[in-house]
Amino acid sequence: MANKLWAGRFAKQTDQAAHDFNASIAVDSRMFREDITGSLAHAAMLAKQGIITAEDGAAIERGLRDILAELESGTLAIDMTAEDIHSFIEGELTARIGEAGKRLHTGRSRNDQVATDLRLYLRGQCDELRAEVQAVIAALQHQRDEYPDAIMPGYTHLQRAQPILFAQHLLAYQEMLRRDISRLDDCQQRMNVSPLGSGALAGTGYAIDRAHTAAALGFDGYTASTLDGVSDRDFCMELAAALSIIMVHLSRLCEELILWCSWEFRFVEHDDAYTTGSSMMPQKKNPDLAELIRGKSGRVFGDLTALLTMMKGQPLAYNKDMQEDKPAIFDAVDTVRACLQAAAPMLATMKAKPEHMRRAAAEGFINATDCADYLVARGMPFRTAYKIVGELVAQCIAAGCTFETLPLAQYQAASELFGDDIYAFVALEACVQRRIS
Question: What is the pTM for the complete model shown?
Answer without folding.
Answer: 0.92
